[in-house]
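Posting for a labmate who doesn't have an account.
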Amino acid sequence: MKKFFVEERAQGLTEYILIIALIAVVSVAALRLFGVQIKDLIVRSTRKIKDETAGFSD
């Protein structure tokens, strides 16, 4: 009976590892696909914030 529970834990751990690996692969693919657009969005946002708050830095 004890062996049955140990095997279930190992299976659960393997499933978590597979899920994390899948998330990592999808994240890397998304960054490669949308990386330039994300970078441009961040740059435009920071410029806009900087422009909007330029008068407050006395």
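Reply:
Got it, the structure tokens are right above this. The chain has a mean pLDDT of 85.
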